[in-house]
């Protein structure tokens, strides 16, 4: 590469690095200005930005880089990339596979270590190795990172110089995504997840700081979140020992939006610049926006040095006071007022996660202080604020003075307990699995809040809502629990009849008591009094579903998803049942964009393609993206069984079926079907008998459960017990036929499959014909499922079958 090309590349790279960090509108405006002044430069930068945007979709499985200039190189790449290796090239004993990102100093490739036969991330400098400054900084990164061994830091396997003079650093190749990608969908992260990411980053930084290594360029692109939730701090390319500050040319290194004020002023820096950056990142995770903004880098830098950030609670109401104070402590202009160490920060985040108060005390800057000729002068607003605080005797009065809603209690102690309980409740509702300890902790803290203030209506309602989650689980439901839930809601309503959350809990109570008209009336009141609460719309959708009023159910669920994007998965469940498969996929795409590690949504999307298109390749691709060992609620195991059956390779589904332990659908019944479809009738008979015994025992404790009955019918059919199977089908229909509700489409479909197995085609076709006209059978049966599912093989030669498939296809076309 000539010196002219190198200068031009540096100009392109500098412009790209500036624009890629901007918001879309600012980026478009700045790019237009560059293109007007230098069309060739503008075109080159636009091409890189386009490649960066497209790469995010192609590289979901691995997002290692910082600004992702090189995520997808091709034959049409810009000529300034010609010096970088092509796939298949050897660098020392590493075979380059594909580009996956770039850091501030180099490009990152996925490569194979041919000596140890392992996949690595191979980092190569973007500039020629004869650039002495680049070489020195690049090798310094290897030395600094190579001396750091910590679970939250990215280690260095090896560093060196190839025979051709190419420098390289080999590191682990992680399966995950950067925090930048997690935040790219817009909106804040759940509170528990944001704290977990910040705590792990602080623990890694604390270890680095103890070794006298400062990162200096911490930002979301340099935090990798792995599939198991572990966080890795990446890219120590700008890391330094305390005696280094800038490059030899005096150029400031780092990303302005995350720089501390002392960094921007060019003064002496220490480890607290990393704590400032982590404060900016935590603020962004909690609110969805950065604390300091501006039209360009200069404006952002001015805001960092001069302005106070908006309080996080002004942007997100559910942020606890302890979390807000922690964030604002990290964003103190004076480093002396910040946390002294990352270890102390990590310890305080852990304390908040455990429901305890942090040790560090926030030192508030005077909000109403104005500066005149370098001297502080207190305004009338500041004096009034101070007087009101003294008069009220509580630190909460200031919120009312500035126009924010009044607190739900006058007791500071009650509110403190309430906030801690809310934190636990948030964890419960966002965790992958139920945590009984968190449930008990939240209940205890709400009760402590009510002891401090018996008239705390919202605490009564929130405790009742918390208890309702247990009642929706048949395994933990009890008459006593239902009544405790009702009493809590009524206590709240006695204090505040217009409290939306209390009305919502009353709706839950009547819904669980199967009094749907009263449930509907209470939940409508909840929507009236709390029109921005997405839970009220979701609850209304559920009631309308049970009433068979599907248009209204869909309308309410769309309202819920509009207010809370995480409700898109519930919206997908409604739309797929209504045969709106394309809309269901769009909802799940929004869900996956918001949370790229939402494996439930991924598998549901794959299942929808099976019902919609009859293809299993999307579901198989989603299964390949799962982290090893992930099988929440056995979703992955069932998906693997489905793929094996639909691909007519039932034996391949047996390993996955070994881990299935369902209640309504026991693993023995799944294994029996696989053996039977594989032609192994002897093993199938053993598993069918096992399933019969298991289901018969379950029915003794739950005799009115229609799903247990229809599964027992399938087991009896497999054993050749025709009349007993038919009797269980009739019993399941009786139990599922509740007044005012449409028939259960899943039970109808499974009954039709049992009839097909029993060589009763007339009865099977009668049920399938009814399912064509069922308002919400799209999740149970479709034209594609009829074509592909082996359970319908016994009906395929019947002349009625092709016509039935066409009827389903036409119904789906009209519904979409």
Structure description:
The structure is a single chain. This protein has 816 residues and is an alpha+beta fold. It has 36 helices and eleven strands. The strands form three sheets. Strands 1-2-3-4-6-5 form a six-stranded antiparallel sheet, with helices on one face. A three-stranded antiparallel sheet has the order 7-8-9. The protein has a two-stranded antiparallel sheet with strand order 10-11. A hairpin with a 5-residue loop joins strand 5 (158-161) and strand 6 (167-172). Helix 17 (457-471) runs parallel beside helix 19 (500-512), helix 19 (500-512) runs antiparallel to helix 20 and helix 24 packs antiparallel against helix 25 (599-613). The longest helix is centred in the last third of the chain and has 21 residues, at 681-701. The radius of gyration is 31 Å and the shape is globular. The two termini are 56 Å apart. Mean pLDDT is 80; it is low at 1-6, 54-82, 237-254 and 365-405.
Short key terms for the protein model shown above:
single chain; about 800 residues; alpha+beta; 6-stranded antiparallel β-sheet; 3-stranded antiparallel β-sheet; 11 strands; about 5% strand; disordered N terminus
Give the helices and strands, then pairings.
Blueprint: H1 3-20, H2 24-37, H3 39-58, E1 90-91, E2 94-102, E3 106-113, E4 118-125, H4 132-146, E5 158-161, E6 167-172, E7 176-178, H5 179-184, H6 191-210, E8 223-226, E9 231-233, H7 261-265, H8 272-287, H9 297-306, H10 312-315, H11 321-330, H12 342-353, E10 369-372, E11 375-378, H13 380-392, H14 397-401, H15 412-430, H16 436-452, H17 457-471, H18 479-495, H19 500-512, H20 516-529, H21 534-546, H22 550-563, H23 568-577, H24 581-594, H25 599-613, H26 617-625, H27 635-646, H28 654-657, H29 667-677, H30 681-701, H31 706-718, H32 722-736, H33 745-757, H34 761-773, H35 783-788, H36 800-815
Antiparallel strand pairs: 1-2, 2-3, 3-4, 4-6, 5-6, 7-8, 8-9, 10-11
Helix pairs in contact: 1-3, 2-3, 6-8, 6-12, 8-11, 15-16, 16-17, 17-18, 17-19, 18-19, 19-20, 19-21, 20-21, 21-22, 22-23, 23-24, 24-25, 25-26, 29-30, 30-31, 31-32, 31-33, 32-33, 33-34, 34-36
């Amino acid at each position: 590469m000539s010196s002219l090309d190198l200068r031009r590349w540096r100009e392109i790279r500098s412009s790209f690095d500036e624009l890629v960090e901007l918001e879309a509108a600012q980026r478009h405006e700045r790019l237009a200005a560059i293109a007007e002044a230098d069309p060739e430069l503008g075109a080159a930068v636009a091409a890189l930005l386009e490649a960066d945007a497209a790469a995010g979709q192609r590289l979901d499985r691995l997002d290692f880089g910082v600004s992702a200039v090189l995520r997808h190189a091709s034959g049409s790449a810009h000529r300034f990339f010609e010096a970088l290796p092509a796939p298949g090239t050897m660098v020392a004993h590493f075979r380059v596979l594909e580009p996956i990102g770039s850091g501030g100093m180099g490009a990152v490739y996925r490569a194979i270590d041919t000596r140890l036969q392992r996949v690595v991330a191979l980092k190569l400098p973007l500039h020629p190795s004869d650039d002495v400054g680049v070489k020195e900084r690049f090798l310094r990164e290897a030395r600094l990172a190579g001396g750091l061994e910590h679970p939250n830091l990215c280690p260095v396997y090896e560093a060196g110089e190839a025979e051709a003079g190419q420098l390289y650093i080999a590191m682990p190749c992680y399966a995950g995504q950067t925090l930048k990608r997690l935040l790219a969908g817009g909106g804040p992260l759940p509170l528990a997840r944001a704290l977990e990411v910040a705590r792990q980053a602080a623990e890694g930084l604390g270890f680095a700081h103890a070794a006298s290594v400062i990162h200096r360029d911490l930002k979301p692109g340099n935090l990798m979140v792995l599939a198991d939730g572990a966080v890795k701090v990446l890219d120590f390319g700008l890391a330094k020992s305390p005696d280094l500050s800038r490059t030899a040319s005096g150029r400031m290194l780092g990303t302005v939006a995350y720089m501390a004020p002392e960094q921007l002023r060019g003064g002496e820096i220490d480890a607290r610049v990393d704590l400032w950056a982590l404060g900016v990142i935590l603020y962004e995770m909690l609110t969805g926006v950065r604390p300091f903004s501006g039209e360009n880098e200069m404006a952002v830098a001015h805001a960092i040095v001069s302005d106070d950030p908006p309080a996080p609670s002004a942007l997100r109401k559910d942020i606890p006071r302890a979390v807000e104070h922690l964030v604002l402590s990290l964003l103190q202009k004076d480093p002396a007022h910040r946390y002294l160490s990352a270890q102390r920060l990590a310890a305080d985040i852990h304390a908040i996660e455990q429901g305890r108060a942090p040790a560090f005390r926030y030192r508030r800057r005077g909000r109403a202080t104005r500066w005149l000729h370098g001297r502080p002068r207190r305004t009338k607003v500041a004096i009034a604020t101070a007087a009101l605080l003294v008069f009220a005797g509580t630190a909460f009065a200031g919120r009312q003075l500035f126009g924010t809603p009044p607190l739900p209690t006058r007791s500071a102690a009650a509110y403190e307990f309430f906030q801690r309980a809310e934190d636990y409740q948030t964890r419960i509702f966002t965790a992958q699995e139920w945590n009984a300890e968190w449930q008990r902790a939240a209940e205890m803290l709400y009760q402590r809040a009510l002891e401090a203030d018996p008239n705390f209506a919202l605490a009564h309602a929130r405790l009742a809502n918390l208890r309702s989650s247990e009642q929706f689980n048949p395994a933990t439901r009890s008459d006593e629990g239902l009544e405790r839930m009702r009493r809590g809601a009524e206590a709240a309503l006695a204090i505040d009849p217009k409290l939306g959350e209390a009305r919502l809990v009353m709706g839950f109570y009547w819904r669980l008591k199967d009094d749907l008209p009263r449930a509907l009336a209470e939940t409508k009141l909840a929507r009236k009094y709390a029109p921005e609460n997405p839970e009220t719309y979701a609850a209304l959708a559920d009631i309308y579903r049970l009433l068979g009023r599907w248009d209204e159910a869909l309308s309410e669920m769309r309202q819920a998803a509009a207010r809370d994007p995480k409700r898109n998965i519930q919206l997908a469940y409604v739309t797929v049942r209504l045969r709106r498969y394309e809309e269901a996929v769009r909802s799940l795409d929004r869900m996956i964009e918001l949370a790229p590690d939402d494996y439930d949504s991924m598998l549901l999307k794959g299942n929808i393609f099976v019902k919609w298109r009859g293809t299993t390749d999307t579901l198989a691709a989603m299964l390949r993206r799962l982290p090893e060992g992930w099988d929440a609620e056995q979703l992955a195991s069932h998906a693997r069984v489905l793929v094996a059956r639909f691909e007519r390779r039932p034996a391949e589904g047996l390993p996955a079926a070994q881990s299935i332990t369902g209640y309504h659908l026991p693993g023995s019944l799944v294994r029996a079907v696989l053996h039977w479809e594989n032609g192994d009738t002897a093993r199938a008979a053993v598993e069918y008998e096992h399933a019969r015994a298991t289901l018969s025992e379950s029915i003794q404790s739950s005799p009115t459960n229609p799903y247990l009955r229809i599964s027992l019918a399938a087991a009896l059919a497999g054993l050749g017990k025709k009349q007993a199977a038919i009797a269980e089908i009739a019993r399941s229909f009786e139990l599922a036929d509740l007044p005012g509700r449409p028939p259960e489409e899943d039970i109808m479909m499974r009954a039709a499959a049992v009839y097909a197995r029993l060589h009763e085609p007339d009865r099977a076709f009668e049920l399938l014909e009814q399912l064509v006209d069922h308002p919400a059978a799209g999740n149970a049966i479709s034209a594609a499922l009829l074509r592909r599912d082996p359970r319908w093989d016994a009906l395929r030669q019947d002349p009625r079958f092709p016509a039935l498939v066409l009827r389903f296809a036409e119904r789906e076309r009209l519904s979409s």
